[in-house]
Amino acid sequence: MRTRPVTYRELLRTSRLGGIVDGSGRRTIDAEVIRRCCTTGAPQVDPRGIRLRGIRVLGQLDLAGTSVEFPLRFESCAFEAAPILENAQVSSLLIVDSPGLPGLLANGLQVRGDLDLSRSAVTGAHRTSASTSKRAAIWLCEANVGGRLLCVDTTITTAGERSLQADRMQVGSTVRRSPAGSTSATLGSVVSSWSGTPRSPPPRPCRSPVRTEASAPPAARSTLPASAWVAN
Question: pTM of the full predicted structure?
Answer without folding.
Answer: 0.80
